[in-house]
Structure formats: structure tokens, C-alpha cells
Amino acid sequence: MASIPIAVICTSCHMFSLAFSVSGESFTCDKCREVVRLTEKILELESRIQSLFEDSKSVRTIENILDASNVSAHSSVPVENPMQLGNFVTVRRHSRRTKHHSTVPIKVSNRFAPLSDAPTEQPAESALVIGDSIVRNVNIEAPATIVTCLPGARAPDIKSNLNVLAKANRKFSKIVIHVGTNDVRLRQSEITKDNIKEVCELAKTMSDTVIFSGPLTAYRGDEIYSRLSSLNGWLSEWCLQNNIDFINNWKSFEGRPDLLKRDGLHPSWDGVSLLSRNLTHSLNNVKV
After folding, report:
1. Is the pLDDT assigned to residue 5 strictly greater than 90?
2. Do 145 and 52 fall within a single domain?
3. What's the chain's average pLDDT?
4. What is the average per-residue pLDDT within 192-210?
5. How confident is the model at residue 75 (pLDDT cuts 50, 70, 90)?
6. Quick one: 63 and 129 in the same domain?
7. Same domain, yes or no, for 151 and 272?
8. Which domain of life is it from (predicted)?
9. Are residues 57 and 178 in the same domain?
10. Which terminus has fewer CB within 10 Å in the chain: N or C?
């Protein structure tokens, strides 16, 4: 016949437990026994830590004594005079030559600082093209044109870079701005429009001619296509109303997926060539 467990009270925690057999009047449950074992282990570890701490203090004391002995020994060694041997002089040295480690300069870059290092040009001769990664690799066939690419940049990033130039009293004959692709991902159309307005207004204080390069057609889903199309339509009207020249890249890239890379967003080499021609044509033909 199978034994039946009985309910007993633990003498430590006074909680009921089920047990098949109880030896004597004192009963300790499994949890209390584990607590006792862990408590003993903790006490043992604390004792070892205290012992190690005292040993480390002894080691430091011995090291201090040895250091003091070495200092006194070096100070008591008399300086030997060089021994003259014919035309040669022998010199005994008691210290090793200090090794000089060559330092390799570390190049630090900041994607928001390249404009400050741009060559200073005369306002009547220089033009600035600034934008996100879409303008990477563009080749502007126009004299004295600075192209600054800020990968991942949104309108506030472009504004921050222009602010750096504005504080340095930099002026340009023309400023071309290309931004918006990264902004539409935030799904905040009105905020994006306000940010673009602020960028253009700041650019106007630095140049008499401001040009906005419109977004490219994107083939990365219906949503981003729709948002970029809407932004392009708004830009074409707003730029006309605010005396800002507008480059309608959408018209050039529409229906041409071959002009984009496999990501459906950045221009391929053919797309870069077409974008470069659009920018060059606008820079060379807009009236200053």
C-alpha cells in the first residue's frame, strides 16, 4: 500500500508542508534548509573577501617599502666620471633611454562639418549644391561649384549646415537644395513643408539665387511614391510663388525605373548623369 503524505509544520518558517515521514519532533522544510545552506555560503564568501582585502593591504605596504628602498639606493650611488681612453670616452649610463613612440594622427570626420572646410570662393563665382545622398556622385559642369552630400539628411540637417556657413559670413552666387526623400518617411507632411520653407528662407540670406531640386520618382512601395509625388506637386507651386527656381526631376525620372538602383530610391549611374545634367542646366541658365 502506497504511503500517504501528511501535513507538518516547519519549525523555522511555521508553514505547512507535505511529507511522507517525519523523524523526531523538529521538522525543517526544503526551502528553509536551502536558506540555511545559502546563508552559510555567503558567510564563507564574506570571510574569504575579508581575507583577500587584508592580504592586498599587506602587499601594498610591502610595495611601498620596496619603492622607498629603491629610491634611497639610487640616490646613494655616486656618479662615475667618464674614463678617458685615448681619443675615446666611455660613459656608463644607469637609466634606459626613453622610447619615443610615433603617434599616428587620427582622422575625425563629421557629416555636418564638411561645409566649414569647403574652399572659400568669391560670391560672384561660387555656387553651392547641398543635399542628401541623392546628390552623391553628381558631376556639375559649371565653374566653381561646391557639391556637399549629407547622407540621411533631412531639411533640419541642411539648415544646420547652412547656419554654420551663415555664421562664417559665407555668400554664394547660387544655392541648390535637394532634400525631402528622408523627410517624407516621417509621415508628417506639414512639418516637412515648414522645415523646407525655413531652409529656403535661410538660403535666401546667403545668396540672391536659390534653386530647389525636386525629388526623384521612387519605386519602393505605393506610400513613399504617393508622398514624394505630393511633395513634388507642392514644391512646384510654392517655389513659383516665393521666387525660387524649381527643378522638376520627377518629370525626367517618371516611368524610368532603369534610372534608379535596385533599392528603388537612389539614382543609378544613368540616373546620376541625368540628375547632373538637370542641375548643370539650371545653374547655367538661371538668371542671377
Report:
1. no
2. no
3. 78
4. 92
5. low
6. no
7. yes
8. Eukaryota
9. no
10. N
Assess whether 52 and 139 both reside in one domain: no
Note whether residue 96 is domain-resident: no
Q: What string of H, E and C letters represents the secondary structure of the chain?
A: CCCCCEEEECCCCCCEEEECCCCCCCCCCHHHHHHHHHHHHHHHHHHHHHHHHHHHHHHHHHHHHHHHHHHHHHHHCCCCCCEEECCEEECCCCCCCCCCCCCCCCCCCCCCCHHHHCCCCCCCCCEEEEECHHHCCCCCCCCCEEEEECCCCCHHHHHHHHHHHHHCCCCCCEEEEECCCCCHHHCCHHHHHHHHHHHHHHHHCCCCCEEEECCCCCCCCHHHHHHHHHHHHHHHHHHHHCCCEEECHHHHHCCCHHHECCCCCCECHHHHHHHHHHHHHHHHHCCC
The domain containing residue 229 runs over which residues?
Answer: 121-285
Q: For residues 247 and 132, state if they share a domain.
A: yes
Confidence grade of residue 45 (pLDDT, cut at 50, 70, 90): confident
Considering the entire predicted model, what is its pTM? 0.57
Asked if 200 contacts 244 with a C-beta cutoff of 8 angstroms, the reply is yes
Same domain? For 165 and 261 the reply is yes
Choose among 284, 265, 288, 286: nearest CA to 276: 284
Cell of 125: 563665382
- Name the band, by pLDDT with cuts 50, 70 and 90, for residue 108: very low
Number of domains observed in the structure of the chain: 2
Q: pLDDT tens digits for 127-145?
A: 899 999 999 888 887 777 8
Q: Which of 99-113, 137-151, 224-238 has the lowest mean pLDDT?
A: 99-113
Alpha carbons 193 and 215: distance in angstroms, whole number: 13
Mean pLDDT for 61-73 is 63
CB atoms under 10 Å from CB of 124, counted, come to 10
